[in-house]
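agent: user wants the full assembly modeled, not chains individually. Plan: 1) parse entity lines 2) check alphabet per entity 3) run joint structure prediction 4) return tokens. Steps 1-2 passed, two entities, 893 residues total. Proceeding.
--- entities ---
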Amino acid sequence: MSTETTAPARAGRSAKSLRSDLKPVWCPGCGDYGVIAGLDKALQELGYARHEIVFVSGIGCSSRLPYFFDTYGFHTIHGRAPAVALGVKLANPKLHVIVVGGDGDFFSIGTNHMVHAARRNLDLTAICMDNHVYGLTKGQVSPTSERDFLTGSTPYGSVEEPVNPLVLMIASGATFVAQSYAANVKHLRETIVAAEGHPGFSFINVISPCHTFNREKDFAYYKGRVSVTEEEAKHDRAEAIRVILTHGEGELLGTFYETRRPTYDGSLADLRRRARERHGVPTLEEILESFA
Amino acid sequence: MKARDTRYVCLRIAGEGGEGVISAGELLTRVAARRGNHVQTFKTFPSEVRGGMAVFQIRTGPEQVISQGDYLDVLVAFNREGYDRNIADLETDGVLVFDFEPTEEAPVRRRRGVDYHVPMGELAKEAGARFGKNMVALGAVARLFGFPLEGLREGIRRKFGKKSEAVVTANLRALDLGARYVEEHLEIRHEVRFPEGDGNPRIVLSGNEAIAFGAVTAGCRFYAGYPITPATGVMEWLARVLPLLDGDMVQAEDEIAAICMCLGASFAGKKVMTATSGPGLALMSEALGLAAMAEVGVVVVDVQRAGPSTGMPTKAEQGDLNLAIFGAHSTAPRVVLAPIDIEDAFRQTVNAFNIATKYQIPVILLSEQSLGYCQASMPRPDFGKIDVFEEEYATVPEDGGDWPRVDEITVGEGYPMTPIFPRYIRYDSGVSPRSLPGMPGLEYRATGLEHDEYARPRYDPENRRAMTAKRKAKYESIRREYGGAVEVIGYPDAEVAVSAWGTTASVMRHAVLRKLNEGARIKAIFPKILSPMPDAAMERHLSGVRKVVVCEMNDTGQYAKIVRHRYHKEVQAVLKDRGLPFKPSEIVPQIDAALEEVVRI
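--- prediction returned ---
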């Protein structure tokens, strides 16, 4: 990784920060500010050059994040960020691709793509800003909302069980699965640095409260309910899932699962090399002769 | 008038799916092309893997074959059903080769023509080739119609060589038994002969292969797709070839993912393509809007099939024109092309990439089942003469100078002016030079939100107007470049014109040439680009025309409506919605009727 950039200096910012001039459009007190702070610090620590970073997002409050970093970014459509990110990463595997989004983006409309990105073990980091509610559309139930949750679309309470993002991602084949908290910027920074250092699909679920549309789970609610696990990351899926599911009250932070297996981009590079060794690199004329 | 041109031979093989109808036909096609015949094929088979009726048809002749013609010269029926369902298409004096026992209740009864019974199944058993009925048929066909057996033997060795020597031997034996049966048991009573080849070996491609090959010729190095009949062939071909060219083929989790992967790779600098059919194109609609808004080039191939919904996935239709041209939410410029034949499929694909790359815009290439599965010979392209557009990227201004500016949009409150890269700078062409992730100093955020020239989200009315106009300006640029992209045949002052798009244009060519030979004063107008329409050329060629006969394979006349409403012409729409392509003989009477009516007026 390179730390050099020939980009013109930007006025009014710390020399090291990767933030852009655009101010976030989020509500005051939004958890996503903490995520931005943790990300900025982590990226500085990692020493990535801004032109080597690509943020890819879908739709939602948190998916606005790419604008607030002066790096490359692609603000795409609802749920599809992991698929777009796959294209970016395969087109240029040297890029640091970070997918950001919310619980609705990742685990409702985009579940399919998350499961397959995890299964393929694409080498990127996906950060879910989980507030258990749809914020951009002003307060509807989300796939991670608790049962009985009252929202505009569930005026009599939600009758659906929430999905557990951590368990789903482990079961799908993600090779690094962690949880962090927007108010614990230090933990978040460390987790992002670790996830970026991990070759393969890294998933971080960040509890990022929305005190506008999810008053039940604002920062005050989480106060005293969040603790960092003392257990090491498990290398066995069943063990990791047990740690997550058997944890009692409150939210547990930490890296629950980590394992190594070939990355998607690495495997494809290998496949290309083997295919070329076996069949050679054909010219267009030679390909044409296969139709003779 | 005798419409039939005896220099051409059209042969159909019909049998049960799984009996090797298609593979026998493909072998015959390949061998015919190797000895220098021009060929074009048509095939249809049931969706189910096995069972149902499979049909393979080859038309071959001394010149480029532009359509399947009207009637068969030869029908090879593997069974009774193959006979029953296809006999109506055989010329009254055509040749029938069949393998079933006619009964008193169901005899083979033809007034004219010649019938030969060949016990294909029995001979295959004798040859020890369990699936060799098709090879027996080929052997018999070769002997009956003067096709050299040696070419077929070589073809069998090539085709089955990879399997095992035993398979090769059994199939060769089946071929020989078929040929010998003809020699020993049949008295040749017909005149139909396969045309002699000119000795120039020709290449044979299916429409799907022509598109895939066109893509790599244009520089495509990333493909993502989801299996769907009849487009899957594009994906499978690229899965073999792209890795050899240091490219990637990804089988996505669905069509939405496929196009989104393409957009990601295109954003990061690859030339990209996905191929699907109607249902898949419907799923891609939202991402096509993103491509238009974020200005990311992508080629989307729609190998149309008979719909809606699952419809008849292995049958032909031209039913997605409206979806391709108009199926956008809001103002989302996209380009629509539709190849007419195999060679055109190759060339239009290169063209599609050039437009997508140059104008940073989605391009939909409308292919069809009957093109995707059709194989035809085409001349070897001269790669030196094929224009492949390569993009020039933006660069950081030298000596710390400012970015080039044109007609700057007023910067509103909360939008500080910093020297950042104007990714969406407004030039008259509508195209702004872009950077790729990894290029220092040119960072920007591609976006589906409305944005200003600096790629920052903006919702104010002035900006909206300016940016919509910018994206739409590409349309005018493309129209300028392709304004003359119309193929015209016939009399410039004709009062009756015919028009069509896609493969129907190729069949129509056949009908029009026939009518022109008879001295009819008509002309044919085929646009080479369907969106934006080449209005200038269309208007020029349509001026003075009193009636336009439009033929298309759908039930509502999607293209006919465009001609009627865009050029205010009286249109006689001839629609065929049966899952099968037009025949020239279905078009000729329509032209006659239009001519008569115009004269009467």
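agent: reporting back. Residues 32-261 of chain A form a domain with the Rossmann fold fold (CATH 3.40.50.970). Residues 264-279 of chain A form the longest helix (16 residues).
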